[in-house]
Write a structure and sequence with these properties.
With about 400 residues, the chain is mostly helical. The chain has helices spanning about 10-20, 35-45, 50-65, 125-145, 150-165, 200-205, 215-235, 235-240, 245-260, 265-285, 290-295, 300-320, 335-340, 345, 365-370, 380-385; strands spanning about 90, 95, 110, 175-180.
Length: about 400
């Protein structure tokens, strides 16, 4: 077994625990959340500003519910991965269904955009996304309230998922989105770990809490370091890096985010310059359209999802010294026209040529507009967001 597939050695974990028993860990820097914007939001909340007070009240209510959930673990599943190790993440390709012309339905056939309900029987994806959702919510709640209950529960969730020997996930996606009768795992499964970008920001927000010690921070960073090595060197990881559509975007988001989290600035910048910038010409038309996503059966969902990935990548890129927000190819392709492409649809001046096969909302696109407005004043993002009063405009929306 390669070194990057091995779990953290028990002796290493022991040293981490000894090193961090009594000391709060120095907080890593937030990556996707703008620290200055969040601080200003907190100041407004503490002054009693009605809008901020309402959002923080809702956030604390969500955190109270999160206190009742967890721990999350990939070891809960009844199914055994092909490796025989329940610590390996396992999932089934959501858009593949039994072939009615075959007695056993295998190999499964694709129905793009339609989720096969039997995939929900494997809980690993829900466990991982639940962890990422709750640690972010709990960390934000701690940031605004200084209530140690939230920090303690978040720390417990992180330890269970990344460090504890009985429940930790192995840092690989060897068996993500397998297709019955065809393959045990595909590169496309890597998109299911895109929510892990919540974890570095959660640790940053938990800085100063007595619940987060050096052992936890160092241990989680080491897990991410091992997973990043798997992403960048494994066969499936390299296949996902070469994928042209939204899968390639979110692969880059993960590698850049995790590289920055673990202190590998060179890897972050190299990924942006050698992979992300060339993707602009592959994915975005001169008019800002996304042909690869528009060709899908859920075009609004996938164009919005991919745009969110690009916006996250642009935020991260600036931390690596790359200005993706304003990058343009020779024929004018770039993130700015890609964002502007949505404007007439959000203003209800145009409708999509093809409706999604399953309903899709506007939250993903609006979260991008909330962040991109400061980069592109001509976008008039405030005017557009005012049309959607149910959208929660917060510094942590992206």
């Amino acid at each position: 077994m390669s070194n990057f597939l091995k779990p953290l050695h028990p002796a290493f974990l022991g040293l981490l625990l000894l090193a961090g028993t009594a000391a709060a860990a120095p907080a890593p820097a937030p990556l996707l959340i703008d620290a200055a914007e969040l601080s200003a939001y907190k100041a407004a909340y503490q002054r009693g500003s009605a809008a901020e007070a309402q959002e923080v009240k809702a956030l604390l209510s969500q955190a109270d519910q999160a206190l009742k959930r967890g721990p999350y673990a990939v070891t809960k599943k009844a199914q055994l991965p092909p490796s025989g190790d329940k610590h390996d993440f396992l999932s089934q390709a959501p858009y593949f269904w039994p072939d009615p012309s075959k007695p056993d339905g295998k190999p499964y056939i694709q129905k793009d955009g339609l989720v096969n309900p039997e995939t929900k029987a494997i809980p690993d994806d829900q466990e991982l996304s639940g962890l990422c959702r709750d640690v972010k919510t709990l960390a934000l709640a701690y940031y605004f309230s200084a209530d140690e209950r939230y920090a303690a529960h978040a720390a417990g969730l992180l330890r269970a998922f990344f460090l504890d020997a009985g429940t930790r996930m192995n840092p690989n996606l060897n068996f993500g989105q397998g297709i019955p009768g065809t393959t045990n795992g595909r590169s496309y499964g890597i998109i299911q770990t895109r929510h892990l970008v919540n974890v570095p920001d959660a640790l940053a927000l938990l800085g100063g809490s007595k619940a987060v010690d050096k052992a936890l921070t160092a241990g989680v960073q080491e897990w991410f370091r091992q997973y990043t090595q798997w992403l960048t060197t494994s066969k499936l990881g390299r296949e996902e890096a070469a994928t042209k559509n939204n899968h390639g975007t979110f692969y880059d988001v993960q590698v850049v985010d995790f590289a920055l989290f673990t202190g590998d600035q060179a890897l972050a910048r190299r990924t942006l310059e050698q992979q992300s910038l060339p993707r602009v010409a592959q994915q975005i038309g001169p008019d800002g359209a996304q042909p690869l996503e528009l060709a899908r059966t859920r075009p609004w969902n996938y164009t919005g999802m991919n745009l969110q990935g690009w916006a996250q990548l642009a935020v991260l890129a600036r931390r690596a010294g790359v200005d993706l927000w304003h990058y343009r190819t020779a024929d004018g392709r770039g993130l700015q026209p890609a964002v502007a492409w949505f404007r007439p649809y959000l203003l209800r001046e145009k409708q999509m040529d093809k409706a999604d096969v399953t309903p899709a909302g506007n939250t993903l696109v609006l979260s991008v507009y909330s962040r991109a407005g400061r980069e592109y004043p001509a976008l008039e993002a405030d005017k557009i967001l005012a049309l959607y009063p149910d959208f929660n405009r917060t510094p942590w929306a992206l």
